[in-house]
User: Fold this.
Amino acid sequence: MKSLIVGSAAVLACAALLVAQAKNDFQAEFKVDKKTLGVRGSNPYFNLTPGYQLSYKHGNDTDVVTVLNETKMIDGVETRVVDDRETEKGALAEFTRDYYAIDSVTNDVYYFGEEVDVYKNGKVVSHEGSWMSGVKGAKFGLMMPAQPRVGQKYYQELAPGVGMDRAEIKSVTETLKTPAGTFMKTIHTVDTSAIEHGKEQKWYAAGVGPVKDAEMDLVKYGIK
Assistant:
């Protein structure tokens, strides 16, 4: 998730904006007991089973997401590590390690941060978009509820000045066709940011996970 990095003054402005956005119905506080957060549980729209892999493609660009048999303690919670590799014209463009935790009571999936390596000509040129819950005022957000409902609005990441992505669920009944198959009753979200302009459409299918966004279509999925 790429985000614009801004200065300290903007960080304070973003914090104020977060309060304003929360009043606009985007959920920014998640009253979940950290004791129930971890790597146990199962969300139908966000598979975190070790070895599960999703492959996406658009033209000559690809994105391969792999759930690793690896965990990392972040903000007092054991999180699952997910490897995300994006290529452009066959060359690695971005490598990200994402961190997620599941609520064993509700099966909601929360996002605890990401470590980003941005590549150019085979070399790392920046770590833009990196953040961790519990560091520099950042807090975990809700990535995907287990029982999504139309009209639900929530922050997926709460890292002032780095990543303030949020989602609104628009539909839970759409049919979507991709190279990987036709999926019924998909979850359609519109994603925006409190610190960037623009919107992005995304779709999630039960038993699969993310199947399409503004740039990529799912071409293959399953345990590797």
Summary: The CA atoms of residues 52 and 141 lie 22 Å apart. The chain has one domain: 8-164.
